[in-house]
Write a structure and sequence with these properties.
This protein is of the alpha/beta class. Helix content is about 35%, strand content about 20%. It has 8 helices and 8 strands; from the N terminus they run E-H-E-H-E-H-E-H-E-E-H-E-H-E-H-H. The longest helix has 16 residues. It is globular. The protein starts with a strand and ends with a helix. Bound molecules: D-xylitol-5-phosphate and zinc ion. The site of zinc ion has 6 residues, from strand 2.
């Protein structure tokens, strides 16, 4: 099975987002990954809802919204208003994760939970049955273009086993440090969706880079 490719616009040219979105629309990208940061949960700030309101109107591709913010449940209506397909919250930011997952589903979106590099896969045992997707971070969240953490491949394998054991049909997404080389190993380990920022937007031909990832 070919992986779902979700380019992250974090590494796009923010001075010309309309052109970047046009390129993504014409590419083999399946989803568009949107990284929202608050400078609290992660040491960086990206963009917020006033910007994304306009970006979301520039594509018909499904939006995968990754919230790297504290108290993400406060923004369920705003994420919904973007027309998001998936709302991704971090395990580390939700004390009442089960409730937040239900709230996302009740709002009409697909719930996904993200785990940081230091968060074990085993902590998801009691929630995977409720999830559309699990996102395994391949770097510490906050910045594009970081070096891939090798242990992520083992975590994807372990998560695939957990999903098999529990009968969960959740998809596995990986975000951070994905390129042709790491992407191939992640798909082999069981990843369904690859988020790619730097490896697309720093490529001389971004459309070709997306095509190559799709056809690993
Ligand atoms: C990192 C973000 C990622 C980032 C990935 O905090 O969640 O989505 O854009 O970028 P690359 O592919 O450059 O590692
Ligand atoms: Zn992301």
């Amino acid at each position: 099975m070919k992986p779902i490719i979700a380019p992250s616009i974090l590494s796009a040219n923010f001075g010309n987002l309309a052109a970047e979105m046009d390129m993504l629309n014409r590419s083999d990208a399946d989803w568009i990954h949107l990284d929202i940061m608050d400078g609290v949960f992660v040491p960086n700030i990206s963009f917020g809802f006033p910007v994304l309101k306009h970006v979301s109107r520039l594509t018909h591709k499904p939006l995968d919204v990754h919230l790297m913010i504290v108290q993400p449940e406060k923004f369920i209506p705003e994420v919904k208003a973007l027309g998001a397909h998936v709302m991704n919250v971090h395990y580390e930011t939700c004390t009442h994760l089960h409730r937040v997952v239900q709230q996302i589903r009740d709002a009409g979106m697909q719930p996904a939970v993200t785990i940081n590099p230091a968060t074990p896969v085993s902590l998801l045992k009691d929630i995977v049955g409720e999830l559309y997707m699990v996102l395994v971070m391949g770097v510490n969240p906050g910045f594009g273009g970081q070096k891939f953490i090798e242990h992520t491949v083992d975590k994807v394998r372990e998560l695939r086993e957990l999903l098999n054991q529990t009968g969960s049909e959740a998809l596995i997404e990986v975000d951070g440090g994905v390129n042709l080389e790491t992407g191939a190993r992640l798909v082999e380990a069981g990843a369904d969706i690859l988020v790619v920022g730097n490896a697309v937007f720093s490529a001389t031909d971004p459309m070709k880079a997306i095509w190559a990832l799709k056809n690993l």
